[in-house]
Specification:
The complex is a heterodimer of chains A (318) and B (248).
Chain A lengths: L1 H20 L4 H21 L9 H17 L5 H23 L4 H21 L1 H4 L5 E2 L12 H28 L1 H7 L5 H5 L5 H27 L1 E2 L6 H14 L4 H21 L3 H16 L3 H20 L1
Antiparallel strand pairs in A: 1-2
Chain B lengths: L4 E10 L2 E11 L5 E4 L6 H8 L7 E6 L2 E2 L5 H7 L1 E4 L11 H12 L14 H11 L15 H14 L4 E5 L10 H15 L2 E5 L3 H7 L2 E6 L2 E6 L1 H5 L2 H11 L1
Parallel strand pairs in B: 3-8, 3-9, 6-7, 7-8
Antiparallel strand pairs in B: 1-2, 1-4, 4-5, 9-10
Helix pairs in contact in B: 3-4, 3-5
Classes of the chains: A mainly alpha (318), B alpha/beta (248).
The structure holds adenosine-5'-diphosphate and magnesium ion.
Chain lengths: 318, 248
């Protein structure tokens, strides 16, 4: 038990010190945390056996929600931007969810994709409002009504992303073990019994779906605020696919795996592309191949396997 | 007096097969009914209609005097009709105890988003239920690792966990070794009595029927052929020929 939490604790401490010991990585890791939070949304969905190829929709809606907030209320505070962005993601999660929650597997995956593509094309076409392919700016908001310099703002965003990743990760794990979360997980194994418990599978599905939209929304709004601009690319299917990719990489269904997977993904992508043009796709593609073939539990699965072995050895030695 | 469950003139056919042909039946609280009959007679179909899974072409189902024919299985379950299946319908990635706790989460509409299901106060109640059906050992085992007989018991326990007024069981002792059938039934009947649940059970073993049913209905080719006390029914020449002859 002790050994199991040592490495995550050390990692967290190192992560918390990044702005001081490796400031060059701070923005990169903020973006990785944002993506990791969004991937947690996919992870939650995976626990019901469903996968969505359109969850970038909520990532984008929250970021655009934030951009519109800043456009309509210039000088709005960070909290206000956050709240409106997340409300937008949750509301659209409820509306789209009411429609898609009755579908499963490929239909579910593709319907989500369809919604995200519709939203993407709206963003592109209604350029009077959305700025088209150029997107919208998210000028730096005040933080607790204090105007910050860029450096200080980025530092705040880093710690905010870290705190949200931990808080929401904790919440998601608790939720998955809670009565509602457990009911949600039964979608994967037996909807007939679920109905014969007096529950509506659609409504049960919707609860987890809205949570997943919320998580993607939080990721999106952080990303938008850190990059200072949001473009239709936020909603593009490639981004949805990327989230699924990271979820599988980290360990399908593992909440901490989502965060670790996102960090590895971003780091490999950034440093490998600095090294040579298209090499990151090669590296990550190979990595994914190996994971799927030899370690379907992803990074989280590998980690707990290694820990089991260490713990086992220790027990033998004692 | 209103009956606990009453059906009037249920009809359903699948292609050329008549699976329910003018099924009219009353079930009263406290009287356990056994349904017997050859395979394909329409016994499971009857349970499917009573729980709203299948809609009859004509006819009505009343539960406590209320017309439930148009309701969904979910709504009928909420009114107090629970069901155990011929093939257990369980959450295979969960343990036996978790399966039961999930049932209580549905029953009591538990909503706390951060309290673990395993820490709810319903846990003690469900451990007691597992104890009643002699499955304490299975509590922390994933249900897909259990024996067929144990899975059937857990499936029934999940239905019982809902605290229904009426429990429909489809062949509760199939998949249970014949040497254990009576033990299993003994356990079940005790659990049912303690929970004050009226049971309808489809059964092939006439020994079980004789001992545990208050009434028997004989199904054949979608029809109720005969209805009466176990003595009346089991001694009837048609039943001996059509049902007992075939099964034994
Ligand atoms: N959903 C269905 N679709 C088509 N045929 C069905 C369906 N359900 C039952 N049947 C048919 O109806 C008849 C009665 O089946 P069933 O009620 O399962 O019998 P029993 O439970 O008495 O063995 C059988 O011939 C079966 O093939
Ligand atoms: Mg049957």
């Amino acid at each position: 038990m002790f050994i199991r939490i040592t490495i995550p604790t050390l990692l967290l401490m190192v992560l918390a010190l990044v702005p001081f010991v490796a400031p060059g990585m701070q923005v990169l890791l903020t973006l990785a945390l944002a993506k990791g939070i969004a991937v947690m949304g996919i992870t939650v969905l995976l626990r019901s056996g469903q996968v969505s190829f359109g969850h970038a929709l909520y990532f984008a809606i929250a970021a655009y929600g934030g951009a519109f907030t800043l456009m309509l209320m210039p000088g709005a505070d960070l909290i206000v931007v956050f709240v409106f962005g997340i409300i937008a993601a949750v509301l659209s999660g409820i509306i789209v969810g009411l429609f898609v929650a009755r579908y499963r597997f490929i239909f579910f995956a593709m319907l989500n994709l369809a919604f995200s593509m519709i939203f993407w094309s709206i963003l592109e076409k209604f350029y009077h409002y959305t700025g088209g392919a150029d997107g919208m700016r998210l000028p730096r908001p005040t933080v607790m009504w204090i105007e910050l310099e860029r450096g200080a703002y980025e530092l705040v965003m880093f710690y905010l992303a870290l705190a949200l990743a931990l808080g929401l990760g904790w919440f998601s794990m608790r939720w998955l073990d809670s009565p509602t979360g457990q009911l949600f997980r039964t979608i994967k194994t037996n909807e007939t019994r679920l109905q014969y418990l007096g529950m509506s599978p659609q409504r049960v599905m919707l609860t987890g779906y809205v949570l997943s939209a919320l998580l993607c929304g939080v990721g999106g709004i952080i990303m938008g605020l850190v990059q200072g601009v949001v473009t239709p690319e936020y909603a593009f299917w490639v981004r949805s696919g990327e989230m699924v990719f990271i979820a599988v990489l980290g360990g399908a269904g593992s909440v901490p795996g989502a965060l670790v997977g996102a960090a590895i993904y971003e780091i490999v992508r950034t440093y490998a592309s600095a090294f040579a043009g298209d090499i990151w796709q090669l590296v990550l593609g190979t990595f994914l191949l190996i994971i799927i073939l030899f370690a379907p539990g992803g990074i989280a699965g590998i980690y707990s396997g290694v820990m089991d072995r260490i713990a086992g050895k220790k027990e033998e030695g004692e | 007096m209103t009956h606990l469950l009453e059906t009037k003139g249920l009809e359903i056919r699948f292609g050329g097969v008549v699976a329910a042909d003018n099924i009219t039946l009353q079930i009263d609280a406290g009287k356990n009914l056994a349904i017997i009959g050859p395979n394909g007679a329409g016994k499971t179909t009857f349970l499917n209609i009573c729980t709203g899974w299948l809609k009859p072409a004509s006819g009505k189902v009343y539960f406590e005097g209320r017309d439930v024919t148009p309701l969904s299985p979910r709504a009928i379950t909420r009114l107090g009709v629970a069901r155990a299946f011929q093939i257990p319908q369980l959450f295979t990635e969960h343990t036996a105890l978790e399966n039961l706790l999930i049932a209580t989460a549905a029953r009591d509409r538990l909503r706390n988003p951060i309290r673990a299901l395993k820490d709810t106060r319903q846990r003690a109640e469900m451990m007691h239920l597992l104890d009643m059906i002699n499955c304490t050992d299975a509590a922390h085992q994933q249900v897909d690792e259990l024996s067929e007989g144990q899975r059937k018991l857990i499936d029934i326990a999940v239905a019982l966990a809902l605290r229904p007024k009426l429990l429909l069981m489809d062949e509760p002792t199939s998949g249970v070794a014949s040497s254990e059938k009576f033990d299993v039934m003994e356990i079940l009947v005790k659990a049912l009595a303690e929970a004050e649940v009226t049971a309808v059970f489809v059964e092939h073993d006439m020994g079980i029927v004789e001992r545990y049913a208050d009434e028997v209905a004989v199904w054949n080719m979608g029809k109720i052929e005969l209805r009466g006390t176990p003595q009346e029914v089991l001694e009837h020449p048609d039943v001996i020929r059509d049902v007992i002859g075939e099964v034994a």
